[in-house]
Amino acid sequence: MYFEANRVIPEAREVAYADFPNQFTWNGRNKAWALRRRGTSIGRLYFVSPRAGERYFLRSLLCAVKGVTCFEDLRTINGYRFETFQAAAVALGLYELDEEWDLCLREASIM
């Protein structure tokens, strides 16, 4: 539904997934999202452990990237489509790879 709202409502493209319930409300009669006119809503994203792998990085991207219309858009950073959500999150700068730490520890063990 979030992806569909981003396709149809231009204002939705400025809102991240986690903030979406604060800005929009679901109209069950019309089966469509509408801009929230008054009040606020408490939206909830379930906790996802880093051990969950791709689900963890998917959740991170949903909180950081605005205006996506599909999962492929979510994995696309600066025009390049990454194979995994983890690679996209690293490219976006949300996480760092452990390679730098591995190199540092190897150098320390040699000394």
Secondary structure class reads alpha+beta
Low-pLDDT parts are none
String of helices and strands: HHEEHHEEHH
Tell me the number of helical segments per DSSP (H or I, 4 or more residues long).
6
Number of strands: 4
Mass-distribution shape: elongated
Q: Termini separation (Å)?
A: 55 Å
Total number of domains? 1
Strand content: 5-15%
Radius of gyration: 18 Å
Molecular structure report:
The chain is α+β, with helices and mostly antiparallel strands. The protein has one domain. The chain is 41% helix and 11% strand. The protein has helices at 2-8, 20-23, 54-64, 71-74, 85-92, 99-110; strands at 24-27, 32-35, 76-77, 80-81. The strands form 2 sheets. It has a two-stranded antiparallel sheet. β1 (24-27) and β2 form a beta hairpin. The longest helix has 12 residues, at 99-110. It starts with a helix and ends with a helix. The model has no long low-confidence stretch (mean pLDDT 85).
